[in-house]
Amino acid sequence: MNDAVSYEQQGAVGVITVANPPVNALSHSVRAGIAEALTASAADDTQAVVLCCDGRTFIAGADITEFGKPPQSPSLPDLLVQLDQHPKLTIAAIHGTALGGGFEVALTCNYRLAVNTAKVGLPEVKLGLLPGAGGTQRTPRLAGIPAAIELITSGNPLSAEKAASMKLIDRVVDGDLLAAAMSYAEELAQGDAPLRRASALPLDISGEDRQLIEATRQRLNKKTRGEHAPQRILDCLLAAGEQSFDEALATERSQFMACLSDPQSAALRHMFFAERAAAKIDSLPRNIEPTAVHHVGIIGAGTMGGGIAMCFAQAGIRVTLVDMSDEAVQAGIDKIAGNYAISVKRGRLSEDQVAGFMANITPSSRYSDLAEVDLVIEAVFENLAVKKEVFAELDSICKPGAILASNTSYQSIDEIAAATSRPESVLGMHFFSPANVMKLLEVVQGAASSESVIATAMATGKKIGKVSVLSGMCYGFIGNRMLRHYGREAALCLMEGASPRQIDSAMEHWGMAMGPLAVGDLAGLDIGYKAREQLSEAQKGDPKTYIIADRLVEAGRFGQKSGAGYYRYDPETRARLDDPVALEIIDAARGELGMVPRDISDEEIVDRLTLALANEGARILEEGIAQRASDIDVVYCYGYGFPRFRGGPMHNIEARGIAESVQRLREFQSTLDPDNWQIASLLEDLAASGAGLADYRRD
Ligand code: T1G
Fold it and tell me: Cα–Cα distance between 667 and 676 in angstroms, integer?
């Protein structure tokens, strides 16, 4: 065989063992090794063969790193034809996560056995793909069309028990998997069990199945708006019921190849690796060990503080939640309890789970209760003076080595750190609202933040289920700094003649979860208004970028919270309704500044907003605020509703072409306000050199 696959005869049973860490992906050596092992099994005097894996998991899928490279024989489909036609009993012994091509290998075996902790699934859709090795054909033959629709279009894993209940697994065992597999193989062989091939099972598609496929098509047209893979999966499942196995396999193959060459899949595979890369801090020595965080203090029991407390409580970490008075902190506790009650009502959590989470949260109105915490996260009013006072007091109370983090969105971590005697232990941990839902955590490194503190914050983020991204210190860090340029262009498109509906629809059709003006209404237009009141006219910038928002707020239109902003909101359904009053206010504001409205195309709107984002992202990259372009993509896809199937703002312009993007930026520089369209020198350099953003690292 080879280094990745071994074959050993043990009595009447042959054992194929895959050893390709870290996840036994089906790289070429694994495919070739299994093929050779099957050939050996066919030729020896065994009666059955068990396929198992070393390490932490059964095969977790095709090797994603091989996509886009020249194919090497045997392909996975070819290997599975050999496995399907194998003349002896084949048994898959599953532990860990049998996913994608790995589960397709198992489905091609005659029988499947799993330990009770194992999970199985077909997550290809999350990569913009579909099961390309018979998964869309074998799954419905074993478990039926409805189960296949749910498993393959959701991409979510199943427990071994659940899979067994769906006849996708034959036996669930506890304890020594290989021993159980060997005895199962002997039992099957001695019982003359048939060579049961899923490919030979009949599949009669009913009228209800067809209706379900059609209903799912409609549902996914909304839920996964703009995404191609889910629709192609349904085409394959329909083919399973209408074509022979071999014909439908050919249909699946062509649909898979269409997905593989689709830019959406390239973007989603980019995001898969981007999320994992973000956890790696290039500047940190490999041997840096995060310190343990067992007890966290949170200052501020408001919306953010409460949401952050929930994150830690749900991860089993003790929380002391502090506010200025018993009443204030109790109000925060009540809000948390209310959030959990909704989750219980929706069936997402059980009463016992919630009781456990709440037991991890201790309310307090005394900073002195934070003397022994390992980490404090401050989430008080967004005012630098207030934060400096809080940190000075924490510094005097918290034990040596305790980490002091601020959840600030904008304030200077360095100025906050200067208020303490331990600047090396101070940094930003910027959560996104609602903190218990949004996965992004920006870990903001101050000038003095130590390596150990950074490593601990990144690891703590992962432990509470966040995707942590390291940011250097600048106004707005990575996400909000870029957002100001995105919001500026939305405001200017409005001033120049587009309506709120046109701007938001253009961006939502392009893939954004929510258009920028609807986001403004959701967050509250009064927040920006109050912030601008603190600024001088010069600091406010171009009045064209905020006069409409100001006039709406002055008319009492704060957004959803007041029932109207750029839109009017149905009090019952909260539906977003076009509002003539808002349009009049917008027109009047244009008149105040002498703006004559013009027609703006959806394409111009999308280009201005997405290129403004990427241009500022390139500046952030060349300043070293972000480690790599893909980190910026993670920030936007996990914190700002940027479509994952576009891969994030930086991947988006890479896919579009840097040179073409720079050309479009130059057009905006000459037709719009040139001050807003100074092109990042990094983009100019890459456009000239032809190099890509993905490999750029600041020296
Ligand atoms: N190919 C290549 N590398 C992979 C990989 C894969 N399929 N899965 C994981 N890795 C790397 C990952 O990049 C990381 O590398 C390391 O393994 C540990 O991963 C034909 C076409 C299995 C649940 O989508 O969901 O089969 O950062 O950090 O948290 O129909 O990895 O250490 O250098 O995620 O314990 C379908 C993807 C492929 C499964 C483990 N399969 N992987 O999670 O570790 S398409 C998937 C996962 C396919 C067929 C189609 C998770 C995991 P590094 P990790 P983890």
Answer: 12
